[in-house]
Amino acid sequence: MKIITHIAIALACLLTLPSISFAQADANATLQQAQQAGQFTFIVFYKDNSPQTQKMLQIVQQSLTGQSEHATLTTASLATAQGQALAEQFQVSRAPMPMTVAVAPNGAITGLFPRQVAKANIDAAIVPPVMMQCMKELQDQKLVFVCLTKSEQAAVPAGVRALQLDPMFKDRMSLIGLNVEDTSEARLMQQLKVDADLIQGPYVALIAPPGVLVGHFSATSTADQIAAAIHKAGKCCDDPNCKHAGNAQASQSNSTRR
């Protein structure tokens, strides 16, 4: 009896789903318009109009209710050339479907949800400005130096400035300011493991792709010390045969065994 009840509820949900014409959705146009308007775009990729696809679409729609100023929804069919091209752009063409991809106004991917999604996922994918900027730079394979401050003006440690002159790092560095008293960025602060009380002068938290916290550096940190930390983490370059990358992997392996 319970199974029949659950089926009836599921059917009722599908019947009450707002009607959307999958074939007419222009995901590219919606994405461009949303980015120009400073909105997040949630793209539901699908192969067919199955109950699983309908359920995902319904959850995303309901989760975005009341968020029209901040986010919009569109769909993309992998059965069309346009949908396939967009899926390849976001590297999800071979991922399990349906798939919801959250794209920030600056182009950063803030969420990937295959097969199923929940309201909590949608809420978490709408990230604040500094976190969004960090995610974009990391996805562009940059070393992100988050310059922490308690004012509107972020100071950069001399060691970081000196590192910008190093040919190995100068083109891969991104400096982003973060006011530690900005409560909207609390999630980023937590991920950076920053104690706001320690911020008394120039201070940075360094994160490397895909989101590795390399360390914290103050006004007394030298360029050599920062470079050594990057080498130790195996994030000095993109060469998989780099001796530093090998050392980092060995260190992680030993740590796991311990």
Automatic annotation (TrEMBL):
State the UniProt keywords alphabetically.
Signal
Q: Does the keyword Signal apply?
A: yes
Origin: domain of life: Bacteria
Please list which residues make up the signal peptide.
1-23
This chain's protein is named: Thioredoxin domain-containing protein
Q: Whose protein is this, by species?
A: Blastopirellula marina
